[in-house]
Amino acid sequence: MAQTKVEILQFASSATSVNARVHPVVLFNICDCYVRRPDQSDRVIGTLLGSVSSDGTVEIQNSYAVPHSESSDQVALDIEYHQNMYLSHQKVNPKEVIVGWYSTGLGVSGGSALIHEFYSREVTNPVHLTVDTGFTNADAGIKAYVSVNLSLGERTLAAQFNEIPLDLRMAEAERVGFDLLKMIKVEKIPNDLEAMESSIARLNVLIDDVYSYVNAVVEGEIAPDNNIGRSIADALAAVPVISAPAFDKLFNDRLQDNALLVYLSSMARTQLSIAERLNTAAQVL
Amino acid sequence: MGKYSKEPENPTKMPARSFLQAVATADVKVSPLRVVRMEGVAILKIIKHCKDFAPTLVTGQLLGLDVGGVLEVTNCFPFPIREEDDEVETDGANYQLEMMRCLREVNVDNNTVGWYQSTLLGSFQTVELIETFMNYQENIRRCVCIIYDPSKSNQGVLALKALKLSDSFMSLYRTNNFIGEKLREKNLTWVDIFEEVPITVSNSSLVSAFMTKLESESPVTQSDFDRLELSTKPFVERNMEFLIDCMDDLTMEQQKFQYHYRNVARQQTQQQAWLQKRRTENMSRKASGEEPLPEEDPLNPIFKPLPEPSRLDSFLITNQVSNFCNQINGVAGQSLCRLYVTKALQDN
Q1: What is the ipTM of this complex?
Q2: Basic and acidic residues compositional bias: what residue ranges (chain B) (predicted)?
Q3: Could you say which of A203, A273, B53, B199 has the lowest number of CB atoms within 10 Å?
Q4: Cα distance between residue B210 and residue A140, in whole Å
Q5: Which among A38, A192, A239 has the least Cβ separation from residue B330?
Q6: Does residue B174 lie in a domain region?
């Protein structure tokens, strides 16, 4: 084997073990930009901002669209716009840096390599996020890629886009409430007690579900699943065992605390109205 | 804008009004703001910004459209945290212009409709808020302030509020007349300073489709966990602390008024005594055939009217107290619910 002569076709071994996490605001922003895109263009491109945590997870926290023009074989990105916008974002939150770029459409297209190269100069190993706004396969395709250079010796031949795992769990959106974000139109934001009511109703439904499942297993209608059984046992074990008198005491104490709070706040309010009356009455001198 | 409402002094002069005046008065009759319609993207952006920086209070600009009685908030952008520096002031203005320009380029609504700010436990009723609002109001006829409370969101509540100042309060604020008489004339109480505008939420069909597709199948959400969390202690404690502080402030304000009234009463007895003296003096002068002295002496310091302290502060504090009371009531109600749920669990 003439080792010195052989040129090996190799992938540049960059950190391919990364995964990405997308915050819901990014998705909303991309959708909004897509809806508002200029007439003549059929996709939007933009910059992704965020941070890379120590374990290699790319947190995509923010984004902005960058105007571009596209013809059959070339893509022109408004680099000045990109830089202005980046500076503006930096002023607000210096912790959010460029982590990659996004484009709408299904998968990676031809021009993507060029744009990716541009972003590679801004940040090492950028993430490319694609959002399939056209629902091509009747599915909400959101994918993230990193690029790996395929090189022959010193020459770079091509760039290969490798898909990386993407975490779409949206705890933030859950906090706001999916109901608010899913509907085209919501008439009212639920207040605290209404929200409580719906939560308790959901809890009720869950308990009913578990109950009927357990019943069905006992009756032999459903094949028992050990994992589910263990989870139920865990949940039941999580309820602390407190003797009835101790619990009653605890319960009554808390009840009285709360009653005291309500009493204090109504007292303050009464005080307010008395003060109001006194103030206006005192003027008749 | 405040001058439009000036009545023409003489009704016969009416036809002499210029066309511009006529247009201006017609303009005043805008339909009142009924509803703020926010897009999901704006809500998420506000929440993100406020949350990232909590407990520092942050602000940002709302962009959208003014459509009749509905104010649409379709987007927003954050302001950098302000520092006490003159140079930064112009920097901030530049940033704002730059951001607006950039957003316009990607077809975002380029119309300011107000601003948003985060708050701590709903203690937002301050003079600064009113001043900012008046500033905005000068340029935009209909503007709104969105308040988001990150501390409350940990309780599983979406604490998003749209506020505006009431018209009667604004006209009073412009003339800076917060003395008792004027307030009674206008029948303005502390309840009438802020008006809360109902918020509705709208999303584009595209977003709606994505969210429907992506929503995890799990029947429990993060906010359910937050709501059913038994411990509310830190929240309630903070709330009570704030309430106590406010009550102290309120007492201070009231003492100010008592002091003022005591002074007024003292002045009045002084005036009476002076008048009495003058009258007896005049009586004796009349008896001796001299000209009587005038019964008023504007140069005498005891006739100088005492300025009445402004009631604005006490109004604002009252608003805050009432807000804390509401919050405490809400939390207490929620924890009562939770208590009974635990009781039911324990009984089983």
Answers
A1: 0.79
A2: 278-289
A3: A273
A4: 6
A5: A192
A6: yes
